[in-house]
Amino acid sequence: MVKYQQATGSRSYEVQVQEVDSMENIITREPKSAAEVVSEVLNESTKNNRFLERIGLPPIPSSRTSKSSLLEKLEAERDGNAELRITIEELKKAHEEAKVAQEEARKAKEEADAAREKKRNSL
Length: 123
What we know:
Structural class: mainly alpha
Region (Disordered): 99-123
Largest sheet: none
Number of domains: 2
Number of helices: 4
């Protein structure tokens, strides 16, 4: 049976019946919208699927491109997470340094106040 008879998009009756059966099987298997079912069948049976573009939905990527794009997204997310971790560590260090400096300044102020108070009391 010829699956891709003509470039115009017309198909034989047998191919059309097979695709309708395929759509019905997909609908009964999983809860999907009609557009998703039709796009899945079109992805299997046509070379250049533009159905989803024409009805205004984003096309469902093929498994090969979706895997590579997901891997790229995962890698980018990992890189972003690593950068965020580095930034967080730098901020923690800066915070600790600021706390230490603040504590030293507080102690120095207390010592200076105590020295002033001692000087006042001695006069």
